[in-house]
Every structure is written in structure tokens, then in C-alpha cells.
Amino acid sequence: MKKLSIMVSILFLAACSAETITDERAKPEANVVKVSEKAVQPVEAEEQEYIKISKDNAPKLWSDADVQLWKYVMDFSLSEELGYKQEITNWRKVEDEFDKSLSSPNQTWENPGKLLLAFMTDVEVSNYLGQEIWEVNTRIEFLDENNALGYIMSYGFFDDSTAGYDTKLKMKKENGYWYIESAEERDHCSRGIGEKSGFCL
């Protein structure tokens, strides 16, 4: 009888313990932090401004040898607000003199690239880098196997009137060697072109 009483007591205590555990599991834990719905909302990216080139102009950067890339990425908003507009002068004959040997078929330059470099060295184009202009780049466009156009394109002038300057060399091959047939130049104007002068304002 005594053993039976002990067994009943053990079963009773076991049942109470199981009920307590079940109740505790059913209750939400006190130390669980609820995450606010606002906290999981995706953070919106800040609106930014980007340089944009239209679909009409983008192909010109690769297909047109005389296109200046900088004209599409510079900020001219201030000058436009003041009533100015960016313009490019017409091509005109190069005013400065250069070595006459560059314009004669003297069997010196085997390709137009070397001839273009010889011209740049003669007129000292690179002397102004970092002092009066920011950048100088060159391009060559072959018209056929005996004719080519060479472009020397300077941009970023430390000047509020002229933004850039281009030189175009018409080069010809004769007897396997190249020479300059003609040389022209033009300006990129930040404030427009004078009606009478035809030069940058």
C-alpha cells in the first residue's frame, strides 16, 4: 500500500511538470525582441545626377574623328544662365608657320602617325600641357590608303572664352611616304562666337 502511494505521488508530480513545461513553451519568450515592420523596409537610394549622352550623340564619339568628348560631359549651366552658348568656329587655315619640310614629299615619314607627331613636336603643342590646357589627344582617320586626316584636339583651356582648340592635318602618301597637304584649325567657344570677328567672345 505504501509503495502504491509513492507511485501515485511520482505520477502526479510528473504530470504537473509536463503541464508546466507545456505552458512555458506556449508563452512567448520574454527576451525576444519584436522587429518593427518599418525596420525591414528597403532603404531608398539617394537620388543622384549622372552624365547622360543622348543616343544620337553617343555613336559620334566613335565614328566621328573630330568630336570632342569633353563637350558632352562639361557643365555649362552657369554660362547658359548668363545667356551664353557653346559654339565651334569654322575651320580656317593654320596661322602659325611650321616646318616646310613637313609639307613636301621628301620620303621621311612612313606613316601618318609619325608625320602627325613630327608636326606636334615642331609647333610645340605639348609645351602648354598643365599650364594653359588640360588635355591633348590625337586621332587619325584614313580616307583611303593614300589619304588621311590627322586631328590634334586640345581641351580644358584655363580661359573663360576658349574651351578647346582643334588642328586638322590633311595628309597624303606619295611614293610610299607621307606629307602634309594642308593644315586647318578651329576653336571651341564657351561664350559663343562674335558676329563680326568669327572668333570666340
UniProtKB/TrEMBL annotation:
The organism encoding this protein is Sporosarcina thermotolerans
Signal peptide start-end: 1-17
This one is known as Lipoprotein
Domain of life of the organism in this record?
Bacteria
**Which keywords appear in this protein's UniProt record, sorted alphabetically?**
Signal
**Source species taxonomy:** Bacteria, Bacillati, Bacillota, Bacilli, Bacillales
